[in-house]
UniProtKB/TrEMBL annotation:
Cell wall formation. Adds enolpyruvyl to UDP-N-acetylglucosamine. Belongs to the EPSP synthase family. MurA subfamily. UDP-N-acetyl-alpha-D-glucosamine binds at R94, R123, P124, I125, D126, Q127, D307, V329. Its main location: cytoplasm. It is found in: Cytoplasm. It comes from Paenibacillus glucanolyticus. It is an enzyme of class 2 (transferase). Its EC number is 2.5.1.7. This is UDP-N-acetylglucosamine 1-carboxyvinyltransferase.
Amino acid sequence: MMSKFIVRGGKRLTGSVKVSGAKNSVLPIIAASLLGEVGESVIIDAPPLDDVITISKVLESLGAGITYQDEVIRVNAEHITTCEAPYEWVRKMRASFLVMGPLLARCGRTRISLPGGCAIGTRPIDQHLKGFEALGAEISLGQGYIEAKSNGRLRGAKVYLDVASVGATENIMMAATLAEGVTVIENAAKEPEIVDLANYLNAMGAKVRGAGTGVIRIEGVEKMHGVEHNVIPDRIEAGTFMAAAAITGGDVYVEGAIADHLGPVISKMEEMGITIEPDENGIRVIADKPLKSVDVKTLPYPGFPTDMQSQMMALLLVSEGTSVVTETVFENRFMHVDEFQLMNAEIKVEGRSAIVTGGAELKGAKVTATDLRAGAALILAGLVSEGTTEVGGVQHIDRGYVHLAEKLSGLGADIWRISTEDQSTEKVSKKVASETEDAKLFKVQPTWV
Ligand SMILES: CC(=O)N[C@H]1[C@@H](OP(=O)(O)OP(=O)(O)OC[C@H]2O[C@@H](n3ccc(=O)[nH]c3=O)[C@H](O)[C@@H]2O)O[C@H](CO)[C@@H](O)[C@@H]1O
Ligand SMILES: C=C(OP(=O)(O)O)C(=O)O
């Protein structure tokens, strides 16, 4: 069903909001479940996201048993019927490519559709393939598929990544768990989701050391088994709520947010004059003075996350002064700029940097989410715009945010979701007039139960 978010600006957010499990943890963790030859895996705090459905469909198509209920996913991968991942699902979501490492390790061969490029950049997979080759796999490409074969078990090796790629680190780490001997990944990505995956693999019987540092050492084991695991909270969803609190001059407790995972986001917000009070269960964000502009440069973890760049830009639009936002991770991640401009923002893009003139008087407009985080950022801008903002492209937002409209309206925002089928302007304005009624009617339902 086609739908869009409607946001009416002007409400200060207060109260408490709970963060869901991390999308970028649960996806590799579900893929890693393919390594469990004995028993079932139980993945707790699995967010009901469209991306989670997609990767579950991939596992299902491989013959694994997979069920989802109440944010718990059960995977039984004792019997896999095929080691080929079909175009149908891999094309839908890039992270489906994460099944390649586990399948290669488990089956000794795999064939998988090439993941598409996407809006934020070309996103090559050369580093994944370089790693598989180092472990002894023979790679061939043809007809939109990649085939990898190993002669018997993969063999442990040293792999130096040219870029600290999150996906390549995960894929190679998973492939290496069942290899013969020791694999060392150098210039590995250090994201908290890599550590979560390593913890999961180790509980399954793998021997992974050093996750969270630039050098990861994996000693291959013969067999792995299913386990129970709790997914870490989503640091990007948490950061998005922190930004929502800050942009509205609010006072919000983000329950489940882990300050250690949000170092650069917290530092930048503090520089902007926002009060951040972390405790052991979450982070309180208080914005009681005008925001100051800051410069931001995205970098691999522990640098400022690219997945928070557009939300940060929304904050900078309404801060005092001029800011420079530099995107170094993806080459095409400024598409929200054009949409912000429709809302009366003043931004100039020069190469990899966007120069943001603060103090904008944002005005509601019809805008489109060009990717997941761009969508979140447009909603943030809508929260402080004059009038009503309609955000289309909701399918991107559904990839990564659970019940976003409900969570924000729980903090006092005027936001709801409408179906755009047979929708006329008249119907939209009626909904604007009676948002409380409609918020109930159009509460976001998990699409997968
Ligand atoms: C599901 C998931 O976890 N997604 C996250 C993951 O994506 P993903 O794992 O795809 O991102 P990578 O870390 O791999 O990409 C980082 C950079 O490395 C480049 N690259 C990557 C692989 C490769 O083989 N060759 C290569 O050149 C990419 O084009 C990009 O410029 O990390 C990104 C960077 O933090 C986040 O924005 C995504 O939300
Ligand atoms: C870019 C993102 O995700 P993905 O790698 O799944 O596209 C994101 O979460 O912002």
